Amino acid sequence: MPSPRLDLNSSSDNWIREKATRDTTIIQSFGYDNANKNIYLAQVTQAGLQLSGESAPVSSADRNLNGDLTITKWDMSGNVLGYMYLRGFGHGMNMGVEPVGGSAYLWTEVDAVPLSDGTSRGTRLARFPFVSGKVLDSTSSSLATYTPAPGSTINTATVDPVYGRLGIRYRDTDGIMKYQVHDLDLARLNIWSEPLATISEPDITAVPGWPLTTYGHPFLQGYAVVGQYLYMLHGNAYGTTESIGGQDVVISQPSVGNTFISCVDLTTGAFAPAPPSTFNQNVNPCYTAAAYTLDYREPEGLGVYIPDLSQPGVFSIGLGFASGPAGARRATIYGKTGLVQPS
């Protein structure tokens, strides 16, 4: 069924600017509880904390290798309402938020495996209730875990709050990154045999109209699904360099960056044609200068926001950014509200 889609070229508005999370590390992802009007954010647990069951404070390097995460619960203004710690889960690259009554269940990666770059990634998915103050281990017998695609690794998830679906990203047995969409009710029951869509991850290096020798190969920093469309956020922190033509080139210039948001049609696996727009740019993927005045600016996460649940088809998408100096990071969210209705 055709669904509305975000006008990537619409303006980006300042929703939350440089607010603190539970820990002082960079946020990795976030998601909205649209029923209870809360925001959940994931980050690697900061150095120097000693949680229950630990004999001594743990270093940042070990937290990264272990896949230890901190979840912060915000109100809609960015005030901290609660937190929990996850041990052995992964990097927190993406998360799904599923409202249940007056609280929420979170969908995250789990069963972290360390990588050569000093970080780790979860190999499966987990679903669990947010409980403020709790320390949850990946080995807990109370934790619901899933392997949506047999043999898959690097699993992450996002919840489509408009159509009641679960989007997942995973690496298949051939090493290809893929996306699938499932009915959320079936996913909760561990039924994965009826995906609504399956596509390979497209490469955004073919950005039309932009000088790729300047923007390089931006990292994937988050994704979201609404209806027939997948949204991806790419970019790097200011000052990031890449070897291009044998030379180190700054691909994310201060006050400019290389942040792109894109829209993929899940029925074809291709970038959706750029819709008519009243704004200057009319491309997909679309460069964004949102929050460009941050001293430190790294894109981190996409979230689907529904202002009024009586009109679920009227949604916005928030773009997350890590900001602030090392050791005192903050989180920023800018939002796009322009929608294009199906013809």
Automatic annotation (TrEMBL):
Domain P68 RBP/TagC-like beta-propeller span(s) in chain numbering: 27-335
Xref: InterPro entries: P68_RBP_TagC-like_beta-prop
Domain of life of the source: Bacteria
Protein name, UniProt field: Teichoic acid biosynthesis protein C
Source species of the chain: Streptacidiphilus alkalitolerans
